Amino acid sequence: MDSKVMLDGSAPITPAVSLHHDSRHENVEMTVFNRSHIEMNSVDSPKSAEDSSSSDAAAHRREMIAMAAVCWTQFMAGWNDGTLGPLIPIIQEHFHIGFMVVSMLFVSACCGYVLGATAVIYFTDRYGFGRVLIGGSLFQIVAYSILSTTPPFPAMCVALTINGIGMSFQNAQTSSLVISLKNNPGTKMGAMHAAYGAGACVAPLISTQFSQIPRWSFYFLVSLGLAVSNTISQSLVFGFRTLPELLASFGIPEVVHTADSTKTSKYRQILNLKVVYILALFALLYVGTEVTIGGWIVTFLIENRGGGASSGYVSSGFFAGLMLGRLVLLWVNQKLGERRAVYLYSFLIIGLEFVVWFTPSLILNAVAISMVGLLLGRYFSDGSAIFANIFCRSILSNSHEPVGWFHTCMASAFRWNDTLTPDKIHRLLTGAISWIASSGMSGSAVFPFITGVIAQKHGVQVLQPLIVGLLGTMVVIWALIPQVGKKKE
Q1: Which Pfam families does the annotation name (predicted)?
Q2: What is the model's pLDDT at position 225?
Q3: Contacts of 192 (CB under 8 A, 6+ apart)
Q4: May I ask the CATH class of domain 60-480?
Q5: What angle (nearest 5°) sits at the alpha carbon of residue 332, between those of residues 316 and 471?
Q6: Read out DSSP for 446-471?
């Protein structure tokens, strides 16, 4: 029977009744029939191949346009995070407040981010990818509109809370989209993080200029214009489509959500994964370190190194290092693997922080801080790559194959576990990313706030020992992350 299956995969066709019953004659007849069928197919194959190639090119073009929109959204996220550092001295002067009170700005942003991360799963299930993403960008527009009017300090805190909610929605959606892409998601994740670094690098250059004029809040008019362009970009590229619909337009088959995948609470499923807690703690320390340096280094240089208002450019150098590190250190990761590379970066950063701590030279401090940013740049990308692997392994405990990136995870789910659908993995991944990101944002509030509280009593020179302590703890947490490969994760 196997010999009668068509070579193009179609069902076998029963031949007409023949007077010949010799098996050799039957084989000859079928051979001639199959050969003629192949010849007919060969005539149509160039057209089919051309149509397939055209369809693939269109899907690739749509994916690249979507990546450009994602990178612009991440640029805005970096812009937002790179804003406060140079503005803190002028905000303190304008409102006549100390280090501890001004630190409430970080806490407010964190509260918004945590609120958004808690709600994003519900809103994504109810309204879909596009609506939640665009809604997040609208939150940013509202926040920047308030901030641009030089409101009272409590109103600034409320605006930053609103902004945090918007950033949380956008970060969860864009991250889950990029990590779900089929072709080179790791490279695209790196591009997304580089766009974040670019935004964080450019923002201090602009905010430093505004920090030297009385109407410093006009800086947020620039932010408002960029936020409006972000909303327009998202509306044109993504619209109100869901994530599976977007992936289908990129040539990744859409999967139907099954009833079995919602029987257990998604929150409970996420919290049952131990790796989420480990990565969340690592994100807490990493983002806390990054924002503490970016937020307080300008004040440190002004207070302890005799720098002027132009010290804000050092913050820009730090974030420029973050952006470049995510690109230029890829070859180090390829040689050493993510795990060993992060150990190397950590020890080098600790050494550079000692240089800043004990060397009074303003120029040397500025160079060292930029190098710290360069080495810190790979942390988040490396953590994301390892997390994608471990996450898929954790939820596919019955899988008998090595699991790599997200699309492999989906294939394994389809093959080995009937109840764990790719649609369910999309939802779990979005929730897990939000949970880890909210932990990171908690660090972005907790540690800058602790710095402000201690600096209120002992001076901002406490920044360097605090950073060294955070880095040392990060090394310990990194060692606790499960191994996912013998040589490279």
Answers
A1: MFS_1
A2: 96
A3: 67, 70, 71, 74, 174, 175, 178
A4: mainly alpha
A5: 55
A6: HHHHHHHHHHHHH-GGGHHHHHHHHH
What are the sequence ranges of the domains in the chain?
60-480
Altogether, the residues listed in the chain come to a count of 489
Q: Are 208 and 313 in contact (CB under 8 A)?
A: yes
Query: What b/e string do you get for 392-431 counting C-beta neighbours within 10 Å, with b at 16 or more?
Result: bbbbbeebeeebbbbbbbbebbeeebeebbbbbbbbbbbb
CA 180 to chain centre: 12
- Per the CB < 8 A criterion, the answer to whether 445 and 160 are in contact is no
- In whole angstroms, what is the distance from residue 297 CA to residue 373 CA? 12
pLDDT along the chain (489 residues), means of 10: 40 42 42 40 52 73 91 92 88 91 89 85 87 95 96 95 92 82 72 85 91 91 96 94 85 54 53 73 88 89 84 87 83 82 91 93 92 86 69 55 39 40 58 70 81 87 92 89 55
Q: pTM for the whole thing?
A: 0.72
Distance CA 154, CA 158 (A): 6
Token pair recorded at residue 36: 């003629």
Cα angle: 287, vertex 139, 204; to 5 degrees: 45
Question: Do residues 76 and 199 lie in contact, with contact meaning Cβ atoms separated by under 8 Å?
Answer: yes
Alpha-carbon gap, residue 206 to 86, rounded angstroms: 9
Query: 466 Cβ partners below 8 Å, 6+ apart?
Result: 292, 447, 450, 451, 454
- Rounded to whole angstroms, the Cα distance separating 170 from 178 reads 12
Identify whether the C-beta of residue 285 lies closer than 8 Å to the C-beta of residue 93: no
Q: Give whole-number Cα distances, 103 to 75, 98, 193, 307, in Å.
A: 24, 9, 26, 21
What is each CA distance from 343 to 181, 264, 328, 397, in whole angstroms? 29, 38, 17, 29
pLDDT of the residue at 479? 85
- What pLDDT is stored for residue 17 in this prediction? 41
In sequence order, what are the residues at sequence separation of 6 or more whose Cβ sits closer than 8 angstroms to the Cβ of residue 411? none
Alpha helices by DSSP H, listed for 148-263, are 153-179, 185-210, 219-237, 243-249
Are the CB atoms for 459 and 307 separated by under 8 Å? no
Structure tokens at 266: 């998604």
Cβ–Cβ contacts within 10 Å for residue 210, how many? 21
**Structure tokens of 447?**
């540690």
CB 350 within 8 A of CB 471: yes
Decide if 376 contacts 290 (C-beta within 8 A). yes
Task: Report residue 406 as tokens.
Answer: 């997200």
Q: What is the pLDDT of residue 28?
A: 38
Rounded distance, CA 47 to CA 49, Å? 5
